[in-house]
Amino acid sequence: MTTDATTMLFEGLEVLEILPRDAADPVRRAAATAGRLALQMGADVWSDGAEGLGPDRAFALGKTAATADMIGDPVAWAAGTAHRVLLLAGGPGVALVGSGAGVNAVRVNAEPWHTEATLFAASGLA
Question: What is the three-state SS of the chain?
Fold first, then answer.
């Protein structure tokens, strides 16, 4: 990894990526992409399932596998410090349950009709 200004932007940030199997694939890939971008900007990223994205294994490169404690209570993990962020692929039936308050979290959610193209356009990256 280089040490230019772009990779240092998220230095010191810890991200826990939660990619539930019951979230839609486009939403899971969108959350995994956000995790990958955070990693490339210097964050430490843990994931509970980026390897489950089939042929899109590039999303998992450089990420660390989340531990059972992190996955068991992600809210408590995130509440441990202000430098931790939860990144959740949401959807119908996907809930983030745990103890703690004042947690930094980002939930990627979509309507059932959304595709990668509509999520990309709505994100502002297009």
Answer: CCCCHHHHCCCCCEEEEECCCCCCHHHHHHHHHHHHHHHHCCCEEEECCHHHCCCCHHHHCCCEECCHHHHHCHHHHHHCCCCEEEEEECCCCCCCCCCCCCCEEEEECCCCCCCHHHHHHHHCCC
Residue 4: other Cβ atoms inside 10 A: 8
Taking the C-alpha atoms of residue 77 and residue 95, their distance in angstroms, rounded to an integer, is 16
Q: Tell the burial category of 69 from Cβ atoms under 10 Å away from its Cβ (0-12, 13-18, 19+).
A: exposed
Is the predicted pLDDT of residue 74 greater than 70, yes or no?
Answer: yes
Kindly tell me the sign of the dihedral angle through the C-alpha atoms of 18, 32, 11, 63.
positive
The pLDDT tens digits of the residues spanning 19-40 come to 888 888 888 888 898 999 999 9
Torsion over CA: 109, 40, 65, 60 (sign): positive
Is there a contact between 41 and 93 (Cβ–Cβ < 8 Å)? no
pTM: 0.81
